[in-house]
Amino acid sequence: MTKMAGLFRPKKLDLSGFVNTRLIRDNNKRMAFEQTEPERQALRYMIRNTSLPGRVRAQAQLQLSQMHAYTRPTQIKNRCVASGTARSVFRDFRINRYQFRMQALAGELPGVKKASW
Amino acid sequence: MFSYTSRSLIGVSKCLWKAPVPFRSLSSPTQPTPPEQEKTPVQDPTPTRTPVTPAEAAPVAPTPAATPIATPTATPATAPASTAPVASTEAEPVTEPSVKEWSERLGAFEDSRLPRSVQAIYLRPLRRKAEYGLPVCDLQLRSYSVRNVEFFADFAIRAAYYLNLPVSGPVPLPRIVERWTVPRSNFVHKKSQENFERITLRRLVQIKDGNPQAVQAWLAFLRKHAFYGVGMKANVWEHDSLDAGKAMDASVAEVEEALRPELARFGQRKDNSAPGTIFDTLNSERFAERKRL
To answer: What protein family does this chain belong to (chain A) (predicted)?
Structure first.
């Protein structure tokens, strides 16, 4: 499995900014999913299509299950682009709650102010 | 359908350049309304929506008015910085109130005054009157700051006037308030949290029954002079006559002509034609073998 994961790793680091092993891994997963998405969808379609012969459908099931784990969309997890954390990442800013607070207080996020009501 | 569908873009731009000329020739000192257009709105002496700071700051400055011994030398000081070089050349009589209305001040000096187009900046934006009121383009401006969005909406309206486009707005749309609450530190200290918010302000500027080309020119002009911190979104509607099907039928010949070079590439190669029908191929041994795999 780990050997196969190398297939999806680009030869050169194609990330900039904050870089982390886990960030790179997540990026690899995203790339792998992007590349194999049509194939996955085709197999999924074949599995669900009742008009196809059972043998074909079973083969498609096998093929889909034998695809690499990195090609699954469920492997993708949003990570903070400023710190690499995977928890409480805001979708709007793609950063962690702590980074969000720091950057908001520093005025680096346009329009974000301290609220009181 | 429109009143000026036949007018080309060049004609509009010509009109833009022509506009200031009759102001100068027909100008009367006390009438700041440009006499060139017949249906201009009544000029409000106090500019409500001009974001230019001197215009709003000047009526507030009460220094010479408070003192009855205001000398003529003190009077021009109330004029904004931009008008000061022109205004200071002449002295006013002592009997007049030292702070005058904007309309009077701008037209007070006949031989030396700002051009009408510059004076218009201090007044409310001029507007064309819509003949049919058919909406053609919705422009939505968004920003996090009131100043920016107000300024740019004003700019857009003025630009539309000179492009001969009837405009309505700016309509203040509901603000978009986004709030986030984050713990100040670790999870253990969940009781101490902090609130942040981002308020997006929106303004809607609507163009009514304008020439589509002029609308495009207006949008391009606004994009060219885009203001910092202001986002723009435009919905443009095109209107056609009721017999759209006829127009499409008429344009078939044109479309076919345009497609001819593309369609000429399609077809079967002459050297590739196999003998027999498609069923021969399907029933052949080779094809069947392929299918089995």
So the answer is: Belongs to the universal ribosomal protein uS14 family.
Distance CA A42, CA A48 (A): 10
CB pairs under 8 A between A and B: 35
Q: Are residues B25 and B96 in the same domain?
A: yes
**CA–CA dist B82, B118 (Å, integer):** 10
- The CATH class of the A78-110 domain is few secondary structures
Which of B183, B195, B200 has its CB closest to that of A115?
B195
pLDDT 10s digits, A50-76:
998 888 899 999 999 999 999 999 999
Q: Give, as one character, the DSSP assignment of residue A113.
A: E
Cβ–Cβ of A90/B195 closer than 8 Å? no
User: What is the distance between the alpha carbons of residues B46 and B60, in angstroms, rounded to a whole number?
Assistant: 11
Nearest to B194 among A92, A101, A110 (CB): A101
Mutate to test the interface with A, among B198, B200, B292, B293 (most CBs of A within 10 A): B198
A115 and B196 within 8 Å at the Cβ level: the answer is: yes
Q: What are B105-164's pLDDT values in tens digits?
A: 666 665 667 788 888 888 888 888 888 888 999 999 999 999 999 999 999 999 999 998
CA distance A9 to A29: 9
- Using left for φ > 0, alpha for ψ between -120 and 50, and beta otherwise, residue B141 falls in beta
Which regions of chain B does DSSP assign to beta strands (E)?
135-143, 167-183, 193-208, 230-236
Indicate if B199 and B140 belong to the same structural domain.
yes
Chosen domain end from B236, B253, B282: B236
Q: How far is B197 from chain A (nearest CA, A)?
A: 5
Owning domain of residue B15: 9-122
From-to residues of CATH 4.10.830.10 in chain A: 78-110
